[in-house]
Amino acid sequence: MASFFNLRIGAYANDGRNISRPPQHPVRVRKRVPLSGQGPRAVAVAGSRLYVANYFSDNLCRLDLAEREPKAESLPLWTFHGTGAPASGPARSETAIDPPGW
Question: Does the pLDDT of residue 4 top 70, yes or no?
Fold first, then answer.
């Protein structure tokens, strides 16, 4: 989480009523939060929620930044139908980490 004074997207945009200035100092990380996936590659913010795309574990993590102690919730990318194979896509992720000697 960055050291912004407001968690709202567009906190520095002019909304017609008040104009906020971006910080004049480098933004620093305030807290590290453990994620439930492997290989985080991208983040997206929607309101007070932060989504992290995990490359190796093929899932998303969702964190609610409005909570005092945000916890990562794992979201699968596809639904399984009891056969052990996903409804669509490969049976095994091509990005999985294989043991030595594969």
Answer: no
pTM equals 0.51
Q: What is the DSSP string of 6-73?
A: --STTTTS--SS--PPPPSS---B------SSSSEEEEEEETTEEEEEETTTTEEEEEETTSSS---E
| Domains of the chain, residue spans | 40-76
Identify whether the C-beta of residue 21 lies closer than 8 Å to the C-beta of residue 12.
yes
Beta carbons of 39 and 56 less than 8 angstroms apart: yes
Give the pLDDT of residue 61: 93
Task: Give the mean model confidence (pLDDT) for residues 86-96.
Answer: 51
Q: How far apart are CA 28 and CA 6, in angstroms?
A: 14
